């Protein structure tokens, strides 16, 4: 017998990296389900503008996921405006690409800070809220890059493998606590983050709304492992049992090995420039004891 679908009406949801892309689409999809939504983004003005456009009492707030104090303030403000948190969606992330040996230490550090440590921050803060209530749901947005390696995105893949491992560990650790965990793994999505990248053969590039629908479905069914498109589930399971030489051949046949190497640099130039700026913001963060200067720069979402 199928499990009854959970209603999301009235649920309080916080979404990181929610001002655009997958985050914005997910907020819209959840609002359509009757949820109350707070979106956080390092571009606070954009977050507020997006919230105003979405309406339905949506709140837009400043958030730097790499700063646990900022994350705590975001959740506190979300709860002040909307009520106790029911769902956290860890969506914020960046994807600089290129040859591994050409990647600077600063870019690698920033990617780990946002894509992985930001998710760790969010999970810890959400679990502290959920545990006394014995209910809550964490959704971590990973990527198909969390299941396989992709040339041109070594560190990005490492962060997304980390998100999957974190999610699976928490799923087991929180069993019986009333807290659910989901991990969502899309192939490259038609957002600015994926601009200029190549499309896999045989799979249409999903839209942000496709990922949003998968997130809503995962929340309603309390499903842990979610692929977008769904057909990737079978592909992942098949390649996992194949010999390495054969699975590499499948990747080559699907052109998965070219998605981050055969890119349109001109189409990707604006996003890459934004990544350089967000790295600079990380480097300008004050040392302990120094006054903090607020600098707002956009972080794109997966």
Task: Outline the structure in words.
- The structure is a single chain.
- By secondary structure, the protein is an alpha/beta fold.
- The protein has a single domain, classed as 3-Layer(aba) Sandwich (Rossmann fold), CATH 3.40.50.
- 47% of the residues lie in helices and 12% in strands.
- A seven-stranded parallel β-sheet has the order 3-2-1-4-5-6-7, sandwiched between helices.
- Helix 1 packs across helix 6 and helix 4 runs parallel beside helix 5.
- It is globular and about 50 Å long.
- The relative contact order is 0.15.
- The C terminus is likely disordered.
Biggest sheet descriptor: 7 strands, parallel
Helix content: 40-55%
Radius of gyration: 19 Å
Strand segment tally: 7
CATH class: Alpha Beta
Strand order within the widest beta sheet: 3-2-1-4-5-6-7
What is the count of helical runs? 9
- Per CATH, the architecture is 3-Layer(aba) Sandwich
Q: What's the gist of this structure?
A:
With 302 residues, the chain is of the alpha/beta class. The protein has nine helices and seven strands; from the N terminus they run E-H-E-H-E-H-E-H-E-H-E-H-E-H-H-H.
